[in-house]
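Now read these lines:
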Amino acid sequence: MHNTPKSIYTQEQNPHQNSTNLLATERKFSLGLTTYEVTHTFKPHFLRFSRQNIVRKLLPESRVSACIRAVKPNASFIPVQYSSSKKIACYRNLMVCGLQWLCPVCSNKISNFRRQELHELIENSSYKTSMVSFTLQHTRRDSLGALITALTASMRLFKNSRHYKSRIENMNVIGNVQALEIVYGAQGWHPHYHLVQIHNSEFEAAEFEAWSKDRWSRIVRKQGAYASAIHGLKFTVGNNKVHDYVAKFGVDQELAGDKKSKGLTPFQLLDDPKNHHLFLEYSEATRGKNQLRYSRGLKQILRDQVTNFEIAKDVTEFDITAAILTRPEWSRIINKRQRAELLKVAADSYKAADPDILSRYLRSVL
């Protein structure tokens, strides 16, 4: 039996290693006669698998425990597939969870798809855009569940009021996309909504902004919470500014040690065992909640509506079979915690047009 090759990808084995150093530092590792340079593009990929391992331990009964790990019941082999268009590799015949709130691996794939979907809707059309951001005051004493309940109830009252519907009709709004985001900072949990509004022509925004700030503050007070009439709601106009938000949708879930961030994302909480109780609170508070919701108007505009689970399991663009593993071989990959590394080596092998890279790696770990 060969020993596992030495590499920098040891965080899957030591998940509490400082993730900031992993993302910030470029290193090299040797495998046989080949040396690979590991850049920042792969480090988030490995970090996702590392964090998924932690979620598996924290939530052993959740579907995350089997995601990209358990073999489908009727499958005898696990193909490693390569996408000649995306230049990345994936596995077939494995279970996936499709849980965007809880699974770092599925969340990345789903966010990438939704981000591209939003980008195409806004960029490749004549539509104008605006964005409304909603939040409420919070302290470290507030539970995430209570904050989301108050925020969601307030949001529902705001959007369902005849005053709001009348104003967006006057602003030529044909639909919206509602995103719930959550971070944890010095003042505790900070859930907030972003509402991207799609307009089919130019619109006047001044009256809407003044009305919405006051209206939001009053609605939140009725829920027993507080939102500043100045800071509780932010209205943004202009395609460039909205494009900036769409371009980074879901990306903050990936980053660690981002100095510009006002707090830790839920997946960043996994990097420190002291914060694991917070992730468990988050997992309970987000149960049954939608992270991204399209209005009925936008659903009619978008050609194809696919679920998060369908996105997570889709491998149609992976057109090359790089390797085929048996169940016992896959068990060795799992036991040696090489899931992320195998995908990276398979991709490198085909990008370099050198199948021996992958062959030598497999001989060393199987």
